[in-house]
Amino acid sequence: MSKQQAFLATLFELNNKHILLTGASSGLGRHFARTLARAGARVAMVARSADKMHDLAAEIRAEGGRCEVYALDVRDREATRACVAAVELVAPIDVLINNAGIARPSAPEKLADAEWDEVYETNLRGPWVLAQAVIKCRLADQRECSIINIASILGIRAIGHLAPYSAAKAGLINLGRDLCVDLAARGIRVNALAPGYFFTEMNDEWLRSPAGDRLRQRVPAKRFGQAAELD
């Protein structure tokens, strides 16, 4: 057992839990996949490109972890429902982590309709379709499950030039609250993580820019987050 695996074992264990994780090919999703597998979970890794996950799957299996790879664009409703059905054939889904997300920075007057739709469909509608599909499965077999929506600090406060992203993440937070009202007494828990600023493929260049450095100076710790702090 590696030092990181031993450390995770002191935080939590997920033995025999089956977890569907979207956005697993890069950024925080890639980190989450490793973390969950090292804690004992079987991880269904989902992203638009399966090719980007094969090396991660090999790494996880080499450490003794269990995972499967699924190609899916969460903007496609029918493909999303079919993906949930395929994952369910392996084992019932105990945890859904809606992590897939994109941003299209733009001044509001320059934002194209297609850009708005792409961000909304990926960051909010996709998580809803996934959540509904998993909810139906768990209500049918009366098994408990957990849904975790990866939102953002920008769903709580604004930074500018990210209108559809901020709106979608705010919607994702409130979607979870509303689902809690309906489902908490029926064995389905819904929570959200709203990370602040972390280096990922999506924002690495901006965070390293002068504007990013000015933002860093406003963070009380005077630094950006590290993925392990979300474990």
Q: How are the strands of the biggest sheet laid out side by side?
A: 3-2-1-4-5-6
Care to count the β-strands?
6
Instruction: Report the total helices.
Output: 8
User: What is the structural class?
Assistant: alpha/beta
Mean pLDDT figure: 92
Radius of gyration, whole Å: 18 Å
Uncertain stretches:
none
The fraction of residues assigned to DSSP E strands is 5-15%
Q: Could you spell the SSE succession in H and E letters?
A: HEHEHEHEHEHEHH
Largest sheet: 6 strands, parallel
Name the overall outline: globular
Query: How widely separated are the two ends?
Result: 18 Å
Helix content: 40-55%
Report a brief summary of the structure.
The chain has 231 residues and is α/β, with parallel strands linked by helices.
Output the keywords:
48% helix; 231 residues; alpha/beta; single chain
Q: How would you portray this structure in words?
A:
- This protein has eight helices and six strands.
- The protein has helices at 3-11, 27-38, 51-62, 77-90, 113-141, 163-183, 204-207, 210-218, and strands spanning 18-22, 42-47, 66-71, 95-98, 145-150, 188-193.
- α4 packs parallel to α5.
- It is globular and about 45 Å long.
- The protein starts with a helix and ends in a 13-residue tail after the last helix.
